[in-house]
Amino acid sequence: MKNYQEIYNEFQSFIKVIENEVLNMVIHSNMSPKAIVEVWEDTEPVFKKYNVPLTERELETTIDVVILPKLLNELNFVVGSSAATCIEGG
């Protein structure tokens, strides 16, 4: 059986992985579908797939919390978001 410290260390490692994934994303939930498609036209089919209208409202205010992570992952996959596409500070 694992002790508290081992569990805590595993949890911290998990958190770092999640933080890295979020930091490597270029499309975020505070962006609007309209703005995203204006920059990355290839994302439009993803919005159609999820029946998301191209409005100026932020994704986080219009998309169900269960669907939002899936949508963000797919959008970022389409634009090739990775550490290579992200730059510090923007």
Structural summary, described in words:
The structure is a single chain. Helices cover 53% and strands 0% of the residues. The C terminus is likely disordered.
Brief characterization of the structure:
This protein is mainly alpha-helical and 90 residues long. It is built from 5 helices and no strands. The protein has helices at residues 4-23, 33-39, 44-49, 59-62, 68-78.
3D shape: elongated
Helices and strands, in N-to-C order? HHHHH
Enumerate the spans where pLDDT stays under 50 for 5 or more consecutive residues.
82-90
- Largest sheet report: none
What portion of the residues fall into strands of 2 or more residues?
Answer: under 5%
User: How many angstroms does the end-to-end distance come to?
Assistant: 44 Å
**Tally of DSSP β-strands:** 0
| Gyration radius, in Å | 16 Å
Rounded average pLDDT: 82
Keywords:
mainly alpha; 5 helices; disordered C terminus; 90 residues
Write the layout of secondary structure elements.
Elements (H helix, E strand, L loop, with lengths): L3 H20 L9 H7 L4 H6 L9 H4 L5 H11 L12
